[in-house]
Amino acid sequence: MDPITVLSDRAEVRVNGFVRSVYNWMCIGLGLTGFIAYYIKDFNFIANKGIFIILVIAVIALPLSISGMINRMSAATATGLFVLYSALMGAMLSPIFKIYTGTSIGTTFFICSATFLGCSVYGWATKRDLTSLGGFCMMGLIGILIASLVNIFIGSNATSMIISYIGVIVFVGLTAYDTQKLKNMALSQPAGLDGDVTRKGAILGALSLYLDFINLFLMLLRIFGQRR
Q1: To bridge 202 with a disulfide, which of 21, 84, 122, 188 should be the other Cys (CB 3.0-4.6 Å)?
Q2: What predicted TM-score, i.e. pTM, was given to this entire model?
Q3: How far is it, in rounded angstroms, from Cα 161 to Cα 145?
Q4: Nearest Cα to Cα of residue 123 among 212, 183, 43
């Protein structure tokens, strides 16, 4: 067999293994989030301000910690923090089962899954460099955060809906962009890379896609969700 072909096959196996690990961890995170959210839905975290504040701080700090200190932590620590973050996010999202009907949550989840899959496939398959799209979407994300903070004081339903529609566009773009980054990361991995480093890369990729999915789901739920 041609040595070049052998090397190509090995590279393809390595890339496929890395990508599979990323999506497996993302699905584990989403599954854990959904499980926790559903089974503690009767506990009102919002009513307990102390617990709610701790949860808010944790769900903001954990992804920043994982992303910022990934090179200084072990793969086991990164994995544990990702699992912990997924569980805490489940606790944060549990009130949606009190706000929206179960049917509309399920319908929105399938809409989100199909949208996410389509964007992810596009991000993987396209030959176009999506770096500029990623930058544009990041600016849009900052705008959404500012508008959402302002709307807390305004309390406008129309503004909230506009933010949701813009949010869908932003996270659709970020899903495609992050998938392309994941592809480039997988293709740039050298042969014989330490397994600990590979696992940390997979966790970092899974975290990015997990956040894209969760935020896209919440934006779509505001649009399609039927309130109780």
Answers
A1: 21
A2: 0.89
A3: 14
A4: 183
